[in-house]
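User: Fold this; C-alpha cells only.

Assistant: Input:
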Amino acid sequence: MAKIKHNNFIDTVDEVFSNAKKEGILHLYAEDKILTGRTIQIKGKEMFHFGTTGYLGLEQDIRLKEAAIAAIYNYGTQFPLSKSYISHPLYSELEIKIEKMYGIPPIITKNSTLGHLAIIPTLIRDEDAVIMDHQVHWSVQNACQLLKLRGIPVEMIRHSNLEMLEDKIRQLTTKCDKIWYMADGVYSMFGDYAPIPELLALTQKYTQLNLYFDDVHGMSWKGKNGTGFVFDAIKELPENCIVLSTLSKTFGASGATIFCKNQKLRDKIKTFGGPLTFSAQLEPASVAAAIASANIHLSPEIELKQKDLADKIAYFNHLLSQGNLPIISKNDSPVFFLGMGTPLTAYNFMKRLFKEGFFLNLGIYPAVPIKNTGIRITLSSHNQQQDITALAEAMEYHFPKALEETNNSENKIRQAFGIESGKAEKISESKEQELYIEEKNTIHDIEKSEWNRYMGKQNVFDWDGLVYLEKTFSQHPDPTNHWDFYYYTIKDNEGSIILMTFFTYGLWKDDMLATESVSIHLEEIRKANPLYLTSKVLSMGSLFSEGKHCFINQKHPLAEKAMKLLLDKLEEKYNALNADMLVLRDFEKDNSYNKTILDQGYFKIDMPESCVIQNQSWDTYEEFTKTLSLRSAKHFNKEIEPYEKCYDIAIKDKLSKSEIARAYQLYNNVKENNYAINTFRYSHEVFENMNESPNWEFIVLALKADVENPFVGIMFCYKNNNHTYVPELIGMDYKWAKEYELYRQLLFQTIKRANALQFQKIDFGMSASFEKRKLGAQIIPKVAYIQARDNFSMELMGTLQNEHKTRTGN
C-alpha cells in the first residue's frame, strides 16, 4: 500500500492560534492587582470585561470569599486524600445543600472534565452505543475516546441535526442495548440551546434512547434554584437522562456535579468512577465557597440575580435589534456571537474594541469553522447598563470600518453563517477598474497559445490536457465522475495577464487525505451507501492533476490585489454553488500569498509531498546511477536493474479493446489496495478517452514467466508539450508484484521512457515518495488552503483516526 505524509491536525490548530497570538488577541495576561469583575487590565489598559463565564458574578461575592478564607484557616489549603478513603469535613454539608437545590443527591467531582471521565466509561456498557453532537464540549468527546478501546460504537452527527440523529438511532437499534445521545445544554460559542423538547419526544419514540447533557454554561442564571437550563426545560429528571452541571463558572466556586435518577448507578459511579477514586478531592476553600453559593441558590436572592442578568440580556438584545449586526443564534442566554467571517476581520475588530476599552473573546477554529470566525460576547451581573450601551455603540461604529479595512462585507458574513443571506453582492473588478476578472466554463473559450504560455507546462492541464479532462468528466452521468469546470483570468487595464487558474466542482470523499485505516472503515459502509461522507467541493485544479494550478505574475505591482480579487470571486462562486468546501491546492509551503489567503478565512493543511524529477539526461545505466546517492545506486543495482530482464516492455500509443479491459482490471487492483489518497474509482471512459488522445501513451510490462496474461503492469502516461512527462495512473497484478519488484520496475521504466523522449521534467505524483526518492525524485512539500461550511467531517475523521489508534496502538 502506497504511503503518504498525512496532515497533522495539531499543526493546523497551532498555526491558527499562533497567528492570533501574533495579533495580540490570544494568550493574554490580566495585570490587575485586584479584580472586580466589571473591568480587567491588559497591557496597561483598563477594559470593561465582556468575556467572563461567571454570568452572575458570584466569584466576587464577599460571602464566597469569606467562606473560602475561613476554610483555609480551619482546614488548610488542601485535604490530600482520595474521597474513597475519607472526605474533608465540608463535603457532607455541600452534598446536602446541592441535593436540596435539585431534589436529587449529587456526585461531586473536581471539575467537569474529570466528571465526564468518571461517569462516561462507567455509565456506558459494552452493549451500548454513543451518538455525539459534533459541537458537544471537548471534555465529553475526550471521555468517549475511552469507549472505543472497548469496541463501543461512537457516532457523531452535525450540530442539533435531529434528522441525522434519528437516522443514526435507527441504524443502531438492532445492534445495541442503550443508545446515548450526548449534547450541551447551552453551547459555549454561539450560546444556542439543545432542542430538549424534541429530544425528549425522541426518547418516547425510541425507548433505547438515553440523553446525556453537559450543562455547565446553563447553570445558575436559569431555572428554579439556579439548577440550569436543562433542568428548567425537563422539570423533573427522567430515568433515561444524565446531567453534568458545575460549581464553577456561574456558580462562583469550583468543581462539577453529576445527576442521575438511578440510585444503583449513582452508587456505582461514586464507588468506582475513575477520577473519583484516584484524583484529589476539592480543596476546602472551593467547597466552602460552593456552600456559600448554594445558600444563595436556595434563597429568593437567586431569582433577583437571575432577573437582573435577564434584564441586561434583554437590554443588550434591544440595542442590537436597533442595528444590523450579524448576531448568530439570537436568544436569551448571556452568550452572544458576532459573526466576522474571516480571522483578519475578527483581529481588526477586536483591536478596535480593545482600544475603545472593551475586552471580548475571539471565537476561532477549531471551536468554530474558520469561515465562521467571530467574537464571543458574554454578559454578567458585573456589567452596568452604561457599559452595555457603550459596547453596543462601539460595535455598531467599528463593525463597518473593520469590514472595509479587511475587504469583507456584511453580506459575505451572513452567507458564511447561513443567516439572512439576502441578495448576493456583485464582485467588483476594481474600484478604479485596475483589474478585470473573466470566468469561462470551457477551455475551448480560451485561446490555446495564451493558456499554454502561462499554464501549458504543468502536469495534465496544458490546453490539450484540459480538452481531455473536459471530454472525460464534464458530461459524465455518474456523479462521482462528473466535474464542472471554471477558468479564471485576471488582467490589468492594459490587458496584461496577472493571474490564470482553473477550478473544478464535484464530489470528494471526506476521507480523501485521511489515514488508510479510516478509509478502510468507511469503504465498508460505502458498500451499502456509496455517497456516505462525501462533500461537494470547489477546488483549484482537479483530482486528476497536481502541480502549480495557479499562475501569478509576482513581479506585477497588482499581483496581491489580483489574488484578493480571485478569492472574492471564488467566495461568490462557492456560495452560489452551495458547495461544502472550497480548496486552494498545491501551493509550496513557503509561498508569497500565505498570509493573504489565511486572512481571507482559510486554514492551511499539509498535503502529501509531491515527487519530481527534473533535467535528467543519461545514456547508460552507469550514468543513471551516478545521478543517485550511493545508497540509492545500490538499491537500483540490486532491486531494479536485475529484474528488467524478467519483463517484455512495450510502449504503446493505442491499446486494443481486450488490452483496455486488462488495463482497467490492473488499475482497479491498485485502487482496491491503496487508500493513501482515497478518491472515487475512475470509470472505464477515462481509459477509453486516453486511448483516443494522441497525448497519452502506455508503458506495458509483460512478465515472461506469466504467459497466461498479456501484461502484468501498466503505467498510463501523459506527454505535455515535450516538456513534462506525467505517469498519471498505474495498474498492477499483485500476484507477481513482490517477487518481481513490479512497482519499482514500472517507476524505472517511466524514468527511462521520459529520458528517451528528452522530457525536462517528470511529475511523479504524490504517493510512495520513499520509493520515488530512491530513484532520484526531488520531494517537494505542498500545502492546501481550505474553507468548509462546518467542521463536522474533519472532526469525524479525527475521531475515527483516534479510534484506530486506541484499538491498535498505532
